[in-house]
Design a protein that fits this description.
Blueprint lengths: L1 H22 L7 E4 L23 E6 L5 E5 L2 E14 L3 E2 L2 E13 L2 E6 L2 E6 L9 E6 L2 E6 L2 E5 L3 E6 L5 E12 L9 E12 L4 E3 L1
Antiparallel strand pairs: 1-5, 1-15, 2-4, 2-14, 3-4, 3-14, 4-6, 6-8, 7-10, 8-9, 9-12, 10-11, 11-13, 12-13, 13-14
């Protein structure tokens, strides 16, 4: 039975690898959230069934204590001392693993920062240049409005996050948020540059796997 199980995992890994090769430009690897950093003898991050987090798992991360979320815009820097991200996964494993965002909040900011559209969140296993237990985070349909000094701009987070697995897993929210609207038009600039570092409180612990 053990040999059959190992063979089954190898087949899954081979299928995932072929899917990746077939795309040419983007990963197409099955992604799961795992309770342990399980790895096959070949070094593939495949999550055993008993370690898989189920569908509807609550994802909850908070801005690291003592740090700030920095949003650099054309009309000045916005800093927030608090921020929380919450979402619930749609599946147990998928290409990519999707989650519905239920809250993306900001507090103690030197401006008004609010999420006006929650959207969804995709988690995708990082498999280049080598296999990892980490993943990329991509927001779709999420919009954040920022108001300061009479200016009003709307930005979309998009592909700006990296999840690093472990005990107390982390998110590096680093990248460019394109402008998608707002009353102040060109004064908003084409995008905002965002830097923030979060720690997971749920699920805990957390690794990204196949």
């Amino acid at each position: 039975m053990k040999q059959l199980k190992i063979l089954g995992l190898a087949v899954v890994a081979a299928a995932a690898l072929m899917a990746f090769v077939g795309t040419g430009t983007a990963s197409a690897t099955f992604t799961s959230l795992c309770k342990a950093p399980t790895t096959t003898e070949a070094g593939l991050p495949i999550c055993e069934g008993e370690h898989l987090y189920p569908a509807q798992t609550r994802i909850h991360a908070e801005l690291q204590v003592g740090s700030k979320l920095n949003i650099a815009t054309a009309f000045g820097n916005i800093e927030c001392n608090k921020s929380t991200l919450e979402a619930f996964t749609e599946q147990k494993t998928e290409i990519p693993l999707g989650a519905n965002v239920t809250a993306f909040t900001f507090g103690e900011c030197n401006g008004i920062v609010q999420t006006i559209k929650n959207g969804t969140l995709d988690i995708e296993l990082i498999d280049l240049p080598e296999w990892t237990h980490n993943g990329t985070l991509t927001f779709t349909g999420t919009e954040v409005t920022i108001e300061k000094a009479g200016l009003h701009c709307i930005y979309s987070p998009g592909d700006t996050g990296t999840l690093t697995g472990g005990v107390m897993a982390t998110i590096d929210l680093v990248g460019t948020w394109p402008r998608t609207g707002g009353r102040s038009g060109a004064l908003c600039g084409p995008n905002a540059n965002v830097t923030g570092f979060y720690t997971f409180t749920s699920p805990e612990p957390l690794w990204v796997s196949m």
